[in-house]
Every structure is written in structure tokens, then in C-alpha cells.
Write a structure and sequence with these properties.
heterodimer; A: 520 residues; alpha/beta; Aspartate Aminotransferase, domain 2; Aspartate Aminotransferase, domain 1; seven-stranded mixed beta sheet; three-stranded antiparallel beta sheet; globular; B: 451 residues; four-stranded antiparallel beta sheet; 15 helices; 39% helix
Chain lengths: 520, 451
């Protein structure tokens, strides 16, 4: 006899059917999983969710270019619109909902104070072309943010304007190209060295600037192979693009030697700062011989990822590259006021140009500075320590069942990299394993990246998780690994079974692309 | 520290599990000379109230555009954003989600992107659109690069009436790849389509024209499209004020090949210039040369309709140095705001919003044209126009700012070397401008120009 509730009814069915075998509902909904049509398919007869008065009557001055045809938009009331997006939101996994261990993506808690500050009218309702006398607070904010960034990185200059990490790479590498031009060596130095483990944006950035990309293999520990690197140096090398800590989750301990050898050979050192969150407050890239590095404010400094952006990718520069930084820049006047330098002239005469409209991602600057002020120098150092501690803890908890591609050769940094050796012969792939994690209530780790490791699984817990959350996560992953090894492959190959959708056919999507809704 | 949940006991227990004596052991791979012993020279942590106070102090040193009359445009527009837009984009499931690489648990973001792409395509009159770029200026630069891939011609002609930030961003990228770009002269008296047509020849990959242009001019682009196509070139149309397309013939109806736009003015606050969202739309047959993320429809293992990111073989994470662009991020949350605002407006709301903007601008232009020392330069416009003043516009703008009036953008700020534009003022009037604002501007201008 099972337990009864206060109404005298059983709290648990005698034989509970699994959701797999349960009869389908008539609506297609499953309790809180609500199916939602496209907004264009909804009941939409001529309404609007916004009330506006009748426009003033004027003789139009559109020069005969009035839009003749309808746009084709549906007409909905506000409650319909709110419900549509609320239902859609419920089909998303998010950091607010649970652990999001995407390696190299740094899915940490996004403080809501940041959001509130970004919406202060003095920031949000500021037009980018207002006269300088009306924007002194905004320029001070940008200057303060620059000060924090330069102090934390130990670098003498920063360009705030890039719109995201890859855009920061472009802005850093463009300064390198401009410096080579100034030296008269741009024609000769066309080669950029990029480790095979790098983010795809690195080679794509180098190529977008007309450089040739030369790969460098990694050594037996997942770091740059120093011999291969030294052998590739010559007077045709413009730069190296190196991520540190790298995408295998380890610190490049030879980084000073790499910098010295590169500088000796006349090249510049671009560091991909995507993983700066592992060392913030403990290591200054300026002490490592770096010439340019971008920071992802949406990683290290917690500005929200927003389902794919917007990002913000300020770039720090060494003394050698600082003159070539793009416009706009901020300049302090003799009377203490601040000005925007928007043209490549005067002190900015060597600026390589402009990378974006206006002055950068101000909304992200507000959020990032709010985060920095909240943590302070001490808290940011603790961020790096806890991020590294959490990753090493997961490594320690998981290594008995998972496989480390380079062996257990030392601590990892903020993320731990496994490969799929432990799944050999089980019929379960890294993809299957990830999809089974979805059924267990977790977002999967980064999979199949870095490319140099077979079936890679890159796990980054971040510093904003409790030990309990890490233990639950580790327990689930260990249980899954044991299940895979025990031959319970259906749990994996059929996963996910409980998500709003089962596996989606990506081949069909790419072969015959349907990229928009069509009437009729 | 309120965002860091580990207790000292947790840390000790975890170090013991790891087998490390101290946290320093985990940083042993950092060269000794580069290890910092203690915190850097910056203030230490602060509570929410203290941080809020500090940030508010900075915010209060600015004059928010809504504090008084605002006639600023030139690529960023002050529109009313409905309360539900800002509420919905702050739902944690949207705000704190990542790029939808695991589609089974990201259908919310993906369906939004699919709807967004549809809305952008509809508004621009194009066949397909991507899931957004960083901003309008970078979209423009990417459009030029795409046109070069399509036509295999590394040469572009930019209109002199293209927003100078767009021009500079595009030229910067082109210069890095030894890609010649030429421009026609800025033409403040009207859209200079003839000069662009004259610049098209068989070596040109694309012509970039803005609509409405930086001075607010609008013109039929069909003859330019014809000239481009006859020479084997593409016509790229830049649009910085998407509300205009609620009233104006869309670029797609004038045979545009690529539309590169700035979507800020729908759903997004001014934010001092960012984050904004680049719009990118083109023809279906060119889709494999299009940069940026794209969402497509498919089915799941049970045959149910669903959405995924697709055509990723164009992108950097697969193609690396052979990718169509190095772009990785899109402007997801801004695209969501755009899409929600479009959904709230609907066909009727968008038409009315556009009509209201135009009517306000016409009233403003007519009132200013009656001010001694002001000459209206536009034969036709949407919600922004240029006026010639009897004095340098920069000084006038500064003087009016002292009185709390944001009078417009002096053309000299965008074209500092163009002395013939020193007296030109760009004036935008959206639905947020009230009749009293127009009167305040007219009176202040009357006084300032008479002084």
C-alpha cells in the first residue's frame, strides 16, 4: 500500500508508466512543455500590441517612394505576445536554471545588478552623438573601465570598441599589421602561427586580414611544441596567435620563452584572452611578453551571453602597438574634461582605422565595470582561484571513469579536457554522451573541441557553482560513464528523450535550407 | 563575496580531494616571475548599494536624451521601447543562455531567430536574412566582402552619403586585405545616384548606397541596381533607420542584392552607441556566401518541427581560415528585442509608427524652414533631414545643449575635413518628439542664429 495524501489518494501510482510508453496527449503538450506555433501562424487579425494616437495630418514628403505592399506582419495584442515569448523562453536551458559547463565559453552567474545599472537613463538613454558636455559621465565610465582593464592585464593601452571576442582578435591583429606596415615589413611578414588547438576564430581572423596561416602542433602535454614553434620562426613570421590558458585547459608554461624567441625573430605576440577568467588577479599578461590580447567581457566579466550575443571584446596593447590602436579613443583635456577622438589625426595619426560604428558596446561596459567594482581586486583574484579549484575538483572526481588525453600530468586551469577513449567499444559517442546529459538535467560540456583531441569533452564549471552542485554533476557523469561501459547504450543513443525536442536532423536543415517562414 | 558560493571549508575539502596542499599548487605552471603575490592595485570588493551609488553618480553626470528635446539621429534613433520588450528580454532563459549549439534545449532562442530572420526579410523585401551581426557598420563591411566573393571582383564603390562610420569601418577592413575602395563625394543637396551610376564599370564588385542616406535623402534605387547588374556588380543597400521601411518602398523592391542594416531603432535603447544589431539580408541563391549565423527549420527524431543553426560549413569553427568571415557572435539579445517589438507592432502598428515619425519630421522641417538663417536641404525624407544654417553647426549645437536641447548632429562631426559642410545640421524627429519640443528648438535656433 503506497502513501496517501491528505485527500486519501495515493501519492504515487502503483505501476508508473515511463514517459516513453505513456499515451500521447491530445494537444501535443506535456504539462509545462507547451508547444508554440510560429508567431506568423497565430490568430492575428489586424491587432497591435501598441496603442498610438492618430499621427498628425501632413502632406507626405516621401518623394513618391511610399511602400505599396504590406510587410506581412501578424497583428497581436500584448498578452498574446508576452505569452508567445514566455513559452519560447521555457524551451531554453540557461545558467539561471542550472550548471552550464561549456568549456571555453565561461557560463558563470550574471548578476542582476549589472542589468539594473545598464538601464539607468544616464547610460541607456544616451545618444552616441551627443555633445561632449552632456556625456562626461559616460566618458569617465569608459576611462575607469580602461583603467581596471589595463591594471588587471598590466598593459599600457586598450581599445574598447570591438563588438565581440573575434572582433577583438581582428582589432588586435590589425594593429600588428599596421605596425608591420610602419616597419616596411608587411609584404615580407605574411605568416601567422596558430596552434592546431586554437579557436576557429584565430585562423579565420588571420585570413580575414590577408595573412597566411601556419599551424603548430601540440606536445605530449597539450601545449605548444616548442621545437616545432622555434623551427617555424623566420623573417616571414608576422605573429603568433596563442590562447593562454589554452583550449586544452592548461597554462603554457613556456610562454616567456615563446615571447622572447618570437620577439627576437621580429614577430608580435597575439594572445587570445578568452580564458583570462582563469588567471585574472593572479597573473598579468603584460608580464608574459604579450603585444596584444582581447578580453571577452561576456566571459571573464559576466556580461550576459543572451543566447549568442551581444559580446564585447576590448583589446589591450603593448607600448609597441599602442600607437596603432583604432579610433575612437578617449583623451583628457587640460581643463580635466574628457573628449572622444574620432578621427585618425593628432596623437591618433597612426591609428589603423575604425572597426565599428560609434564607440563600442557601452551597455556591456556598464555591466562589466559594475561586476569589477562588486568583486574588487580581492574578489577577482578569488574568481580565478575558485574557477581553477572547481575545474580541478571535477577532474579529481571524474578521472577514475573518464580519460585524460594527455595523462594526469599536472593541474588544469579553469577547465578540464577529457577525450572519448573511455567510451571505446561501448557504441556510445561523445555526442551521445552529451545528449544523455541533457536528460539528466545538465547542459552538455563543449564537445569535439579542441579539434586536436578525439571526441573531446571540455568541462568548465566556473566559480559560481557550489561544491554540492559540482558533486551532483560529478555523480551523474560517473553514473553515465558506468552505464555506457555496462552496455546500456540505448540510454545514450536515444537521448535526449525528455527535452522539448529529440535529436534534430541537421543534415536536412543544411541540404535544403529553410531560413524563413513563408505565407501559404 | 555574494557571487562566490565556496566556503573556506569547501575549499579545504576540495583541495584535499585534489591532493593539492594549497591553491598556489594549482597555479604552478605559471612562470614564477609572473605570479602576483596579492591583489593588484585596485579597490576591494563592494556591496550592491555601494556599487549602485558609484554607478549612479556617473550616470547623473550625463544629460539623458529624454531629459529634454532630442533631435539626434545619424545612425541611432530614440524611439519608445514598450515595457514588455525589456521585461521579456530579461527572462533568465533568454538572457543567460548560450549560443544554441544544443538545439534540443535551445528551441526558444532558435525559434526566435527563425522568426527574426523572417521579419528582417519581410521588412527589407529580401528573400533571406541571417541571425544578426555586431552592428550596421560591420554588416556593411561584411556585405562588401561578400560581394567580392560572389563577383570575384575586389573593388567597391561607396556612396559619399554613406554614414562615415560605416565607410571607415568598411575601408579599414578592405585596406587590410589590399582591396581598393573608392567613394563618391558627399552630396548634401540630394541622393547622388547619378554619380554612383557613373562610377560602375566591369571591375566593380559592388556599389554601397544608403537609404535613407546620412543626410536623410531618399531616392529610387532601381536605376542604380540596373546599372550594377548590367556591369555584373551587386547593389548593397545600407539602412540605418529600419522604422523607415514601414513607410518606404523596401530595398528588395528596388532589386537590391544585399541589405546591410542597423536594427537598433526597433526594440533597442540608444545605449550610447552599443550594443546594437547588424541586419543582413540577401537573395536565396547567395545564401552560401552570406556571413554570420543562420537558423533553419528541420525535424527531430520523432518528426516534429524544430530549428537548428545551419550552413555552419561557412563558419569559422568548421572552416577556420577558409571561413566566409571570422565572425562568431551574433547580437542575440538585441535581435530578440527587435523581434519582440516587431511582434507587438504588427502590420498596423508598424505602419502607424512610421507614419507618425514621418509626420513629426515634416512638422519639424516646416517649422525650422521658417526660422531665419535655416534652409531645408531635402526634397524628400523620412524622419531625418539636413538643414543649412547661417553659422557653423557645431557651435550652435553646443550652445543649444547648454539650454538642454539636443538640436541634432553637426555634419562636421562626421565629415571634419569637409569645410563646405560646416554649417550643415542633421535633424531627426521620431515619435518621441512632442510639438513643444519642436517649438523649443525653433525658438532657440531663432535666437542663436540671430546672435
Amino acid at each position: 500500500m503506497s502513501a496517501m495524501n491528505t485527500q486519501g489518494r495515493p501519492t504515487k501510482p502503483e505501476a508508473s508508466a515511463s514517459s516513453d510508453t505513456a499515451p500521447a496527449t491530445f494537444t501535443g503538450n506535456r504539462a509545462l512543455h507547451l508547444e508554440e506555433k510560429l508567431i506568423f501562424e497565430k490568430d492575428s487579425a489586424g491587432r497591435s500590441g501598441i496603442d498610438m494616437p492618430e499621427p498628425p495630418k501632413v502632406v507626405d514628403r516621401l518623394g513618391g517612394l511610399s511602400r505599396g505592399e504590406a510587410v506581412g506582419l501578424p497583428g497581436l495584442s500584448e498578452p498574446q505576445v508576452v505569452r508567445h515569448y514566455t513559452r519560447l523562453s521555457q524551451k531554453n536551458y540557461a545558467i539561471d536554471a542550472g550548471l552550464f559547463p561549456l568549456g571555453s565559453c565561461t557560463m558563470k552567474h550574471n548578476p542582476r545588478l549589472n542589468e539594473r545599472m545598464a538601464r539607468l537613463p544616464g547610460f541607456a538613454d544616451l545618444h552616441p552623438m551627443q555633445p561632449e558636455s552632456t556625456i562626461q559621465g559616460a566618458l569617465q565610465l569608459m576611462q575607469q573601465l580602461s583603467h581596471w582593464i589595463m591594471t588587471l592585464t598590466g598593459m599600457p593601452a586598450v581599445a574598447l570598441s570591438p563588438g565581440a571576442g573575434a572582433h577583438g582578435e581582428l582589432t588586435g591583429m590589425a594593429a600588428i599589421r599596421a605596425a608591420l606596415e610602419a616597419r616596411g615589413e608587411a609584404g615580407k611578414r605574411r605568416k601567422v602561427l596558430v596552434p592546431d588547438s586554437a579557436h576557429g576564430t584565430n585562423p579565420a581572423t588571420a585570413a580575414a586580414l590577408g595573412f597566411e596561416v601556419a599551424g603548430i602542433e601540440e606536445d605530449s602535454t597539450g601545449r605548444v611544441n616548442l621545437k616545432a614553434f622555434e623551427a617555424s620562426l623566420g623573417d616571414d613570421v608576422a605573429a603568433i596567435m596563442l590562447t593562454n590558458p589554452n583550449t586544452c585547459g592548461v597554462f603554457e608554461y613556456d610562454i616567456r620563452r615563446i615571447a622572447d624567441a618570437l620577439h627576437e625573430a621580429g614577430g608580435y605576440f597575439y594572445c587570445d584572452g578568452a580564458n583570462f577568467n582563469a588567471i585574472v588577479g593572479r597573473v598579468r599578461p603584460g608580464d608574459l611578453g604579450i603585444d596584444a590580447m582581447h578580453l571577452n567581457l561576456h566571459k571573464t566579466f559576466s556580461t550576459p551571453h543572451g543566447g549568442g550575443g551581444p559580446g564585447s571584446g576590448p583589446v589591450v596593447y603593448s607600448e609597441a602597438l599602442a600607437p596603432f590602436a583604432p579610433v575612437p579613443r578617449i583623451q583628457q583635456n587640460a581643463d580635466g574634461t574628457l573628449s572622444l577622438v574620432e578621427q585618425a589625426e593628432g596623437d591618433a595619426a597612426q591609428a589603423f582605422g575604425r572597426v565599428k560604428g560609434f564607440h563600442g558596446q557601452m551597455g556591456m561596459f556598464v555591466r562589466a565595470l559594475t561586476y569589477m567594482l562588486s568583486h574588487g581586486a580581492d574578489g577577482l583574484r578569488q574568481v580565478a582561484e575558485d574557477a581553477v579549484l572547481n575545474a580541478n575538483y571535477l577532474k579529481a572526481r571524474l578521472k577514475s571513469e573518464f580519460s585524460l588525453p594527455y595523462g594526469d600530468t599536472g593541474p588544469c586551469m579553469h577547465e578540464v579536457l577529457f577525450d572519448d577513449t573511455f567510451l571505446k567499444g561501448t557504441g556510445v559517442s561523445t555526442l551521445d554522451f552529451s545528449k544523455a546529459m541533457i536528460d539528466e538535467g545538465f547542459h552538455p560540456m563543449t564537445m569535439y573541441f579542441p579539434l586536436v583531441v578525439h571526441g573531446a569533452m571540455l568541462i568548465e564549471p566556473t566559480e559560481t557553482e557550489t561544491k554540492n552542485a559540482l558533486d551532483e554533476f560529478a555523480d551523474s557523469l560517473l553514473a553515465l560513464a558506468k552505464a555506457a561501459k555496462a552496455g546500456d547504450s540505448e540510454r545514450f543513443t536515444q537521448a535526449p528523450r525528455f527535452a522539448p525536442r529529440r535529436r534534430l536532423d541537421e543534415t536536412q536543415a543544411a541540404r535544403k535550407p529553410v531560413l524563413r517562414w513563408q505565407a501559404g | 563575496m555574494r557571487y562566490l558560493p565556496l566556503t573556506p571549508q569547501d575549499r579545504e575539502a576540495m583541495l584535499a580531494t585534489i591532493g593539492a596542499a594549497s591553491i598556489d599548487d594549482l597555479f604552478c605552471d605559471v612562470p614564477e616571475a609572473a605570479r602576483l603575490d596579492g591583489p593588484v592595485d585596485l579597490p576591494s570588493h563592494a556591496g550592491e548599494m555601494a556599487v549602485e551609488r558609484q554607478m549612479s553618480r556617473l550616470a547623473l553626470q550625463n544629460h539623458a536624451a529624454g531629459e529634454g528635446p532630442c533631435f539626434l539621429g545619424a545612425g541611432a534613433y530614440r524611439h519608445h521601447v514598450p515595457a514588455s520588450v525589456d521585461y521579456l528580454i530579461q527572462r533568465g532563459e533568454f538572457l543567460t543562455a548560450y549560443t544554441p549549439y544544443q538545439p534540443e534545449i535551445a528551441q526558444g532562442t532558435l525559434q526566435v531567430l527563425f522568426e527574426f530572420q523572417t521579419q528582417v526579410a519581410m521588412l527589407t523585401g529580401m528573400e533571406v536574412a541571417n541571425a544578426s551581426m555586431y552592428d550596421g557598420a560591420t554588416s556593411c563591411a561584411e556585405a562588401v566582402m561578400m560581394a567580392a566573393r560572389v563577383t570575384k571582383r575586389n573593388k567597391a564603390v561607396l556612396s559619399g552619403n554613406l554614414h562615415p562610420h560605416y565607410r571607415d569601418t568598411t575601408e579599414t577592413l578592405c585596406r587590410m586585405t589590399d582591396f581598393p575602395v573608392s567613394e563618391t563625394a558627399p552630396h548634401v543637396a540630394g541622393a547622388d545616384i547619378d554619380a554612383l551610376i557613373a562610377a560602375v564599370d566591369g571591375s566593380v564588385g559592388c556599389v554601397v548606397v544608403q537609404y535613407p542616406d546620412v543626410f536623410g535623402h531618399i531616392a529610387d534605387l532601381t536605376p542604380l541596381a540596373d546599372a550594377c547588374h548590367a556591369a555584373g556588380a551587386l547593389m548593397v543597400v545600407v539602412c540605418t533607420e529600419m522604422v523607415s521601411l514601414g513607410a518606404l518602398k523596401p530595398p528588395g523592391a528596388m532589386d537590391a542584392d544585399i541589405v546591410a542594416g542597423e536594427g537598433q531603432s526597433i526594440g533597442n535603447a540608444l545605449n550610447f552607441g552599443g550594443p546594437y544589431l547588424g541586419l543582413f539580408a540577401t537573395r536565396q541563391k547567395l545564401v552560401r556566401q552570406m556571413p554570420g549565423r543562420v537558423c533553419g527549420e528541420t525535424v527531430d527524431a520523432d518528426g516534429q518541427r524544430g530549428y537548428v543553426l545551419t550552413l555552419s560549413t561557412r563558419e569559422q569553427h568548421i572552416r577556420r581560415e577558409k571561413a566566409t568571415s571570422n565572425i562568431c557572435t551574433n547580437s542575440g539579445l538585441c535581435a530578440l528585442a527587435f523581434s519582440i517589438h516587431m511582434s507587438l507592432l504588427g502590420e498596423a502598428g508598424l505602419n502607424r509608427l512610421a507614419a507618425w515619425n514621418h509626420a513629426t519630421a515634416v512638422q519639424t522641417a516646416e517649422r525650422l524652414a521658417g526660422v531665419p538663417g535655416v534652409e531645408l536641404l531635402n526634397p524628400a525624407f523620412f524622419n531625418e533631414f539636413a538643414v543649412q544654417l547661417s553659422k557653423p553647426a557645431a557651435g550652435v549645437v553646443d550652445a543649444l545643449a547648454e539650454q538642454g536641447i539636443l538640436a541634432g548632429v553637426p555634419a562636421s562631426r562626421l565629415y571634419p575635413d569637409q569645410t563646405d559642410l560646416a554649417n550643415v545640421l542633421l535633424v531627426a524627429a521620431t515619435e518621441t518628439v512632442e510639438p513643444e519640443d519642436i517649438e523649443s528648438l525653433a525658438l532657440a535656433l531663432t535666437k542663436e542664429l540671430a546672435a
